[in-house]
From TrEMBL:
The chain crosses the membrane at residues 95-114. Keywords: Membrane, Transmembrane, Transmembrane helix. This is Anti-sigma factor. It comes from the Bacteria.
Length: 152
């Protein structure tokens, strides 16, 4: 079908647009459209001419309603039932896991388990942290000195 004359392409395109092709002709025309730019140009020209000869739609809202009413709703009901089957049980919900983690943390805090994990003198750790200034404070000092120099 790749070696068709322009007239043969025009006839096949007209049959395709009007819906008079066989399945084999439709498939071959669609592959030809993908491969041959001349066939694509011819197809677009014929579509444009058909579009001009078509009457205008009188009531587009009614047309839309008719199309939407013709869609079978049982297809969507199957999707909804599938979603309901996939709903998680209450103990599979992430909020449940967060609540359990919070309860375990409170239990460990109240029993002193976290205090038992750290052995040794905590004042040494506290002194070491006080000796170094926080990064945010260092940045604030640098910014303030830069602004003071800018004002001069």
């Amino acid at each position: 079908m790749k070696h068709l004359s322009v007239e043969d392409k025009r006839i096949l395109a007209q049959l395709y647009i009007n819906g008079g092709c066989t399945m084999e002709q439709e498939k071959s025309w669609e592959t030809l459209l993908l491969e041959d730019t001349e066939a694509m140009d011819l197809h677009i020209q014929l579509l444009s001419s058909v579009e001009l000869s078509m009457p205008d739609m009188m009531d587009s809202i009614q047309f839309t309603d008719d199309v939407m009413n013709s869609i079978p709703f049982h297809l969507y009901e199957k999707e909804e039932s599938r979603i309901e089957q996939q709903r998680r049980r209450w103990f599979e919900h992430p909020i449940f896991h967060y609540a359990v983690a919070a309860c375990v943390t409170l239990l460990f805090l109240s029993t002193g388990l976290f205090d038992k994990l750290v052995t040794g003198d905590l004042t040494v750790i506290a002194k070491e942290q006080k000796q170094t200034t926080p990064y945010s404070e260092q940045m604030m000092d640098i910014t303030v000195t830069w602004l003071d120099q800018l004002k001069r």
